[in-house]
Amino acid sequence: MTELTCIVCPRGCRLKVDTENGYRVTGHSCEKGEAYGKNELLNPTRVVTSTVKITGAMHRRIPVKTNGAIPKKLIFEAMKLLDGIELKAPVKLGDIVVKDILGTGIDFVASRDML
Ligand code: SF4
Predict the structure, then answer these.
(1) Which pLDDT value is given to residue 20?
(2) How far is the CA of 48 from the centre of ligand 1 (A)?
(3) Do 37 and 53 fall within a single domain?
(4) Could you tell me if residue 115 is inside a domain?
(5) Do 54 and 91 lie in a common domain?
(6) Alpha carbon of 106 to those of 41, 96, 100: distances in Å?
(7) Alpha-carbon span 78 to 70, nearest angstrom
(8) Which residues pair with 66 in a beta bridge?
(9) How do residues 43-95 score in pLDDT, each as one tens digit?
(10) Which residue's CA is the closest to the ligand 1 atom numbered 3?
């Protein structure tokens, strides 16, 4: 049995996942929490946020994030893809910075406009 806190919403339900019985989840208050509990043990994923350099803009770096969750085990490698990237202003919210991160089908996108 593994215990963890659901991070899908602020309620923070305490989940128990029975790893010996088909990853049965208890302690959740909704279906999202049940799915989170199971996935967190079988294939944990996260949305990743970071920043990259930008030139010709009001700031030197611009925030970026993945437009979906990627496997936790790929986060380090995914962050390395951002090294050396230098965007040029103007950049729009949602512009793709790195497409199809490591074959996941998820992209890094700009998380704000920057002129
Ligand atoms: S189980 Fe449902 S209600 Fe509870 S924290 Fe997770 S998402 Fe929120």
Answers:
(1) 94
(2) 21
(3) no
(4) no
(5) yes
(6) 21, 10, 5
(7) 9
(8) 108
(9) 999 999 999 999 999 999 999 999 999 999 999 999 999 999 999 999 999 99
(10) 29
Q: What is the mean pLDDT of the chain?
A: 97
Q: How many CB atoms lie within 10 A of CB 13?
A: 19
Ligand 1 centroid – CA 64 distance (Å): 27
User: Chain-centre distance of CA 67, in angstroms?
Assistant: 8
Tell me, yes or no, if the pTM score tops 0.70: yes
Domain count, the chain: 2
Q: What lines the ligand 1 site, CB under 6 Å?
A: 6, 8-9, 11-13, 28-30, 32-33
82 in any annotated domain? yes
User: Which tokens hold the place of 106?
Assistant: 């998820």
Whose CA is closest to 59, among 93, 91, 84, 82?
A: 91
Do 34 and 78 lie in a common domain? no
* Angle, CA of 23, 49 and 43, to the nearest 5°: 15
Ligand 1: centre distance to CA 4 (Å): 12
Q: Which of 83, 69, 10 is nearest to 40 (CA)?
A: 69
